[in-house]
Protein backbone atom coordinates (compact mmCIF):
# COMPACT_ATOMS: atom_id res chain seq x y z
CA UNK A 1 0.00 0.00 0.00
CA UNK A 2 1.27 3.41 -0.93
CA UNK A 3 1.91 5.30 2.29
CA UNK A 4 3.02 8.62 0.84
CA UNK A 5 1.11 10.29 -1.96
CA UNK A 6 3.11 11.90 -4.76
CA UNK A 7 0.15 13.78 -6.20
CA UNK A 8 0.19 17.47 -6.83
CA UNK A 9 -2.15 19.38 -4.47
CA UNK A 10 -4.48 20.33 -7.33
CA UNK A 11 -4.71 16.72 -8.46
CA UNK A 12 -5.25 15.57 -4.90
CA UNK A 13 -8.19 17.96 -4.74
CA UNK A 14 -9.59 16.85 -8.13
CA UNK A 15 -9.39 13.16 -7.30
CA UNK A 16 -11.01 13.79 -3.92
CA UNK A 17 -13.91 15.50 -5.71
CA UNK A 18 -14.19 12.53 -8.06
CA UNK A 19 -14.36 10.11 -5.12
CA UNK A 20 -17.02 12.25 -3.44
CA UNK A 21 -19.00 12.33 -6.68
CA UNK A 22 -18.95 8.55 -6.97
CA UNK A 23 -20.06 8.21 -3.36
CA UNK A 24 -22.88 10.69 -3.95
CA UNK A 25 -24.07 8.83 -7.05
CA UNK A 26 -24.09 5.54 -5.20
CA UNK A 27 -26.16 7.05 -2.37
CA UNK A 28 -28.62 8.53 -4.87
CA UNK A 29 -28.97 5.14 -6.54
CA UNK A 30 -29.69 3.46 -3.22
CA UNK A 31 -32.08 6.02 -1.73
CA UNK A 32 -33.46 7.63 -4.86
CA UNK A 33 -33.54 11.27 -5.88
CA UNK A 34 -35.16 13.18 -3.04
CA UNK A 35 -34.99 16.61 -4.63
CA UNK A 36 -38.19 18.31 -5.72
CA UNK A 37 -39.03 20.39 -8.76
CA UNK A 38 -38.95 24.17 -8.70
CA UNK A 39 -37.94 27.29 -10.57
CA UNK A 40 -35.33 29.99 -10.20
CA UNK A 41 -36.18 33.40 -11.59
CA UNK A 42 -35.26 37.06 -11.65
CA UNK A 43 -37.10 40.26 -12.49
CA UNK A 44 -36.43 42.83 -15.17
CA UNK A 45 -36.31 46.21 -13.44
CA UNK A 46 -35.44 49.75 -14.44
CA UNK A 47 -31.93 49.15 -13.12
CA UNK A 48 -31.51 45.91 -15.05
CA UNK A 49 -31.96 42.28 -14.13
CA UNK A 50 -32.31 41.55 -10.45
CA UNK A 51 -30.39 38.87 -8.61
CA UNK A 52 -31.75 35.31 -9.05
CA UNK A 53 -34.22 34.20 -6.38
CA UNK A 54 -33.94 31.90 -4.68
CA UNK A 55 -30.18 31.78 -4.94
CA UNK A 56 -28.70 28.87 -6.88
CA UNK A 57 -26.90 27.32 -3.94
CA UNK A 58 -30.10 27.50 -1.89
CA UNK A 59 -32.38 26.09 -4.57
CA UNK A 60 -30.05 23.34 -5.73
CA UNK A 61 -28.53 22.67 -2.31
CA UNK A 62 -25.01 22.92 -3.68
CA UNK A 63 -22.32 24.24 -1.38
CA UNK A 64 -20.32 26.92 -3.09
CA UNK A 65 -17.26 26.39 -0.92
CA UNK A 66 -13.95 27.60 -2.29
CA UNK A 67 -12.01 27.19 0.93
CA UNK A 68 -10.09 24.13 -0.29
CA UNK A 69 -9.30 25.73 -3.64
CA UNK A 70 -7.98 28.92 -2.05
CA UNK A 71 -6.03 26.86 0.50
CA UNK A 72 -4.13 24.96 -2.20
CA UNK A 73 -3.58 28.20 -4.12
CA UNK A 74 -1.97 29.65 -0.98
CA UNK A 75 0.21 26.56 -0.55
CA UNK A 76 1.28 26.80 -4.18
CA UNK A 77 2.20 30.46 -3.71
CA UNK A 78 4.24 29.66 -0.58
CA UNK A 79 6.26 26.86 -2.15
CA UNK A 80 6.79 28.95 -5.30
CA UNK A 81 8.29 31.71 -3.14
CA UNK A 82 10.33 29.09 -1.28
CA UNK A 83 11.78 27.52 -4.42
CA UNK A 84 12.44 30.94 -5.92
CA UNK A 85 14.31 32.08 -2.81
CA UNK A 86 16.26 28.82 -2.70
CA UNK A 87 17.15 29.12 -6.39
CA UNK A 88 18.48 32.65 -5.94
CA UNK A 89 20.48 31.92 -2.79
CA UNK A 90 21.94 28.70 -4.19
CA UNK A 91 22.99 30.42 -7.42
CA UNK A 92 24.82 33.09 -5.40
CA UNK A 93 26.47 30.40 -3.28
CA UNK A 94 27.69 28.48 -6.34
CA UNK A 95 29.13 31.65 -7.89
CA UNK A 96 30.95 32.48 -4.65
CA UNK A 97 32.51 29.02 -4.39
CA UNK A 98 33.52 29.09 -8.05
CA UNK A 99 35.14 32.53 -7.91
CA UNK A 100 37.10 31.93 -4.69
CA UNK A 101 39.79 29.62 -6.05
CA UNK A 102 41.41 29.10 -2.65
CA UNK A 103 38.23 27.28 -1.59
CA UNK A 104 38.47 24.75 -4.41
CA UNK A 105 38.76 21.41 -2.65
CA UNK A 106 36.97 18.07 -2.59
CA UNK A 107 34.63 19.13 0.20
CA UNK A 108 33.47 22.28 -1.57
CA UNK A 109 33.20 20.47 -4.90
CA UNK A 110 30.74 18.11 -3.25
CA UNK A 111 28.91 21.07 -1.72
CA UNK A 112 28.60 22.67 -5.16
CA UNK A 113 27.18 19.48 -6.63
CA UNK A 114 24.62 19.38 -3.82
CA UNK A 115 23.74 23.02 -4.51
CA UNK A 116 23.30 22.16 -8.18
CA UNK A 117 20.83 19.40 -7.36
CA UNK A 118 18.76 21.82 -5.28
CA UNK A 119 18.86 24.31 -8.18
CA UNK A 120 17.71 21.64 -10.63
CA UNK A 121 14.98 20.57 -8.23
CA UNK A 122 13.65 24.13 -8.05
CA UNK A 123 13.79 24.49 -11.82
CA UNK A 124 11.98 21.17 -12.27
CA UNK A 125 9.16 22.34 -10.00
CA UNK A 126 8.75 25.54 -12.02
CA UNK A 127 8.78 23.58 -15.29
CA UNK A 128 6.25 21.13 -13.90
CA UNK A 129 3.88 23.87 -12.81
CA UNK A 130 4.25 25.71 -16.12
CA UNK A 131 3.60 22.51 -18.08
CA UNK A 132 0.85 20.85 -16.09
CA UNK A 133 -1.02 23.73 -14.51
CA UNK A 134 -0.61 26.65 -16.89
CA UNK A 135 -4.38 26.82 -17.42
CA UNK A 136 -6.91 26.48 -14.63
CA UNK A 137 -9.54 25.28 -17.11
CA UNK A 138 -7.67 22.12 -18.09
CA UNK A 139 -7.72 18.92 -16.06
CA UNK A 140 -4.13 17.79 -16.48
CA UNK A 141 -4.55 15.13 -13.83
CA UNK A 142 -6.23 12.82 -16.33
CA UNK A 143 -4.54 14.21 -19.45
CA UNK A 144 -1.33 12.52 -20.59
CA UNK A 145 0.93 14.40 -23.00
CA UNK A 146 4.58 14.18 -24.00
CA UNK A 147 5.38 17.43 -22.19
CA UNK A 148 3.60 16.16 -19.09
CA UNK A 149 5.59 12.92 -19.05
CA UNK A 150 8.88 14.71 -19.71
CA UNK A 151 8.32 17.18 -16.87
CA UNK A 152 7.43 14.36 -14.47
CA UNK A 153 10.52 12.34 -15.43
CA UNK A 154 12.77 15.40 -15.08
CA UNK A 155 11.27 16.18 -11.68
CA UNK A 156 11.83 12.60 -10.51
CA UNK A 157 15.44 12.63 -11.70
CA UNK A 158 16.26 15.96 -10.01
CA UNK A 159 14.76 14.88 -6.69
CA UNK A 160 16.54 11.52 -6.82
CA UNK A 161 19.87 13.22 -7.60
CA UNK A 162 19.27 15.50 -4.63
CA UNK A 163 18.82 12.52 -2.32
CA UNK A 164 21.90 10.75 -3.68
CA UNK A 165 24.11 13.83 -3.26
CA UNK A 166 22.92 14.03 0.32
CA UNK A 167 24.11 10.44 0.56
CA UNK A 168 27.44 11.49 -1.00
CA UNK A 169 27.86 14.14 1.71
CA UNK A 170 27.37 11.46 4.36
CA UNK A 171 29.69 8.97 2.62
CA UNK A 172 32.41 11.61 2.23
CA UNK A 173 32.21 12.55 5.91
CA UNK A 174 32.35 8.89 6.90
CA UNK A 175 35.37 8.31 4.65
CA UNK A 176 37.20 11.20 6.32
CA UNK A 177 36.51 9.72 9.73
CA UNK A 178 37.59 6.23 8.70
CA UNK A 179 40.71 7.05 6.73
CA UNK A 180 42.83 10.19 6.54
CA UNK A 181 44.64 9.06 3.39
CA UNK A 182 42.25 9.37 0.49
CA UNK A 183 42.85 9.90 -3.18
CA UNK A 184 40.55 12.86 -3.62
CA UNK A 185 40.45 12.79 -7.44
CA UNK A 186 39.40 9.15 -7.56
CA UNK A 187 36.86 9.72 -4.78
CA UNK A 188 35.33 12.67 -6.60
CA UNK A 189 34.75 10.59 -9.74
CA UNK A 190 33.21 7.83 -7.64
CA UNK A 191 30.97 10.32 -5.85
CA UNK A 192 29.93 11.88 -9.16
CA UNK A 193 28.98 8.46 -10.50
CA UNK A 194 26.97 7.77 -7.35
CA UNK A 195 25.26 11.16 -7.33
CA UNK A 196 24.38 11.47 -11.03
CA UNK A 197 24.70 7.99 -12.53
CA UNK A 198 22.72 5.86 -10.09
CA UNK A 199 19.64 8.13 -10.24
CA UNK A 200 19.78 8.00 -14.04
CA UNK A 201 19.75 4.21 -13.98
CA UNK A 202 16.84 4.20 -11.53
CA UNK A 203 14.87 6.65 -13.66
CA UNK A 204 15.42 4.58 -16.81
CA UNK A 205 14.24 1.44 -15.02
CA UNK A 206 11.23 3.31 -13.68
CA UNK A 207 10.30 4.57 -17.16
CA UNK A 208 10.59 1.05 -18.59
CA UNK A 209 8.38 -0.34 -15.84
CA UNK A 210 5.76 2.31 -16.52
CA UNK A 211 5.84 1.63 -20.24
CA UNK A 212 5.68 -2.16 -20.12
CA UNK A 213 3.66 -2.93 -17.00
CA UNK A 214 1.15 -0.07 -16.78
CA UNK A 215 -1.09 1.90 -19.09
CA UNK A 216 0.88 4.85 -20.43
CA UNK A 217 -2.21 7.03 -20.24
CA UNK A 218 -2.08 6.74 -16.44
CA UNK A 219 1.48 8.01 -16.13
CA UNK A 220 0.44 11.25 -14.49
CA UNK A 221 -2.18 9.93 -12.11
CA UNK A 222 0.11 8.97 -9.26
CA UNK A 223 3.34 10.76 -10.20
CA UNK A 224 2.48 14.34 -11.11
CA UNK A 225 4.79 15.51 -8.40
CA UNK A 226 7.27 13.65 -6.24
CA UNK A 227 7.30 15.95 -3.25
CA UNK A 228 10.93 16.82 -2.54
CA UNK A 229 11.64 16.22 1.12
CA UNK A 230 14.22 15.16 3.58
CA UNK A 231 14.06 15.21 7.34
CA UNK A 232 12.07 13.90 10.22
CA UNK A 233 8.72 15.14 8.97
CA UNK A 234 9.19 12.93 5.91
CA UNK A 235 9.68 9.92 8.16
CA UNK A 236 6.57 10.80 10.16
CA UNK A 237 4.25 11.22 7.18
CA UNK A 238 5.60 8.13 5.42
CA UNK A 239 3.95 5.93 8.07
CA UNK A 240 0.57 7.64 7.78
CA UNK A 241 -2.14 6.74 5.24
CA UNK A 242 -2.87 9.00 2.28
CA UNK A 243 -6.19 10.17 3.66
CA UNK A 244 -4.77 11.30 7.02
CA UNK A 245 -5.12 15.10 7.15
CA UNK A 246 -4.20 15.68 3.51
CA UNK A 247 -4.21 19.46 3.85
CA UNK A 248 -1.71 19.47 6.72
CA UNK A 249 0.55 16.90 5.05
CA UNK A 250 0.68 18.82 1.78
CA UNK A 251 1.36 22.12 3.55
CA UNK A 252 4.21 20.72 5.65
CA UNK A 253 5.85 18.74 2.86
CA UNK A 254 5.65 21.35 0.12
CA UNK A 255 6.28 24.50 2.12
CA UNK A 256 9.15 23.15 4.23
CA UNK A 257 10.66 21.29 1.30
CA UNK A 258 10.75 24.43 -0.85
CA UNK A 259 12.94 26.31 1.64
CA UNK A 260 15.48 23.52 2.13
CA UNK A 261 17.71 24.87 -0.62
CA UNK A 262 17.88 28.23 1.13
CA UNK A 263 18.81 26.53 4.41
CA UNK A 264 21.56 24.49 2.73
CA UNK A 265 23.01 27.58 1.03
CA UNK A 266 23.08 29.48 4.32
CA UNK A 267 24.68 26.66 6.30
CA UNK A 268 27.24 25.48 3.73
CA UNK A 269 28.20 28.82 2.18
CA UNK A 270 26.99 32.04 3.76
CA UNK A 271 27.77 30.96 7.35
CA UNK A 272 30.93 29.09 6.37
CA UNK A 273 33.88 30.65 8.20
CA UNK A 274 36.28 29.92 5.33
CA UNK A 275 34.00 31.64 2.84
CA UNK A 276 33.56 34.65 5.12
CA UNK A 277 37.31 34.95 5.69
CA UNK A 278 38.05 34.69 1.98
CA UNK A 279 35.46 37.33 1.10
CA UNK A 280 36.82 39.60 3.84
CA UNK A 281 40.35 39.11 2.49
CA UNK A 282 39.22 39.92 -1.04
CA UNK A 283 37.53 43.07 0.21
CA UNK A 284 40.67 44.19 2.06
CA UNK A 285 42.77 43.59 -1.07
CA UNK A 286 40.26 45.55 -3.11
CA UNK A 287 40.49 48.46 -0.70
CA UNK A 288 44.30 48.31 -0.73
CA UNK A 289 44.29 48.36 -4.50
CA UNK A 290 41.92 51.33 -4.55
CA UNK A 291 43.87 53.47 -2.07
CA UNK A 292 47.44 52.31 -2.71
CA UNK A 293 48.21 55.20 -5.09
CA UNK A 294 47.11 58.68 -3.98
CA UNK A 295 47.84 61.96 -5.85
CA UNK A 296 49.42 64.59 -3.56
CA UNK A 297 49.79 68.38 -3.90
CA UNK A 298 50.16 70.58 -6.93
CA UNK A 299 53.31 68.82 -8.16
CA UNK A 300 51.33 65.75 -9.10
CA UNK A 301 53.70 63.50 -7.19
CA UNK A 302 52.54 60.12 -5.94
CA UNK A 303 53.15 58.29 -2.73
CA UNK A 304 52.44 54.78 -1.47
CA UNK A 305 50.28 54.60 1.59
CA UNK A 306 51.50 52.27 4.35
CA UNK A 307 48.00 50.76 4.63
Automatic annotation (TrEMBL):
Keywords: G-protein coupled receptor, Glycoprotein, Membrane, Receptor, Transducer, Transmembrane, Transmembrane helix. The chain crosses the membrane at residues 77-100, 150-168, 188-212, 224-240, 246-271. Residues 75-207, 218-272 form the G-protein coupled receptors family 2 profile domain. It is a multi-pass membrane protein. GO terms for molecular function: G protein-coupled peptide receptor activity; growth factor binding; growth hormone-releasing hormone receptor activity; peptide hormone binding. It comes from the Eukaryota. The keyword Membrane applies. Pfam families: 7tm_2. It is found in: Membrane. One of its GO terms (biological process) is adenylate cyclase-activating G protein-coupled receptor signaling pathway. PANTHER family: GROWTH HORMONE-RELEASING HORMONE RECEPTOR, PDF RECEPTOR-LIKE PROTEIN-RELATED. This is Growth hormone-releasing hormone receptor. It comes from Triplophysa tibetana.
Amino acid sequence: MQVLSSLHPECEYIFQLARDEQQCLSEITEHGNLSGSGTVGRNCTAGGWSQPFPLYHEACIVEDDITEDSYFATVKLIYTIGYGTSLLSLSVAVVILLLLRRLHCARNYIHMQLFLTFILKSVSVFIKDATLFASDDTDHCTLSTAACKASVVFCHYCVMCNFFWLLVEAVYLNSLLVSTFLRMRRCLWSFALLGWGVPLVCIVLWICSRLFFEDTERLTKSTLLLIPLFGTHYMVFSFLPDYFNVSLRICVELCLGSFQGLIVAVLYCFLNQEVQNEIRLRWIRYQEGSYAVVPVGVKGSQMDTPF
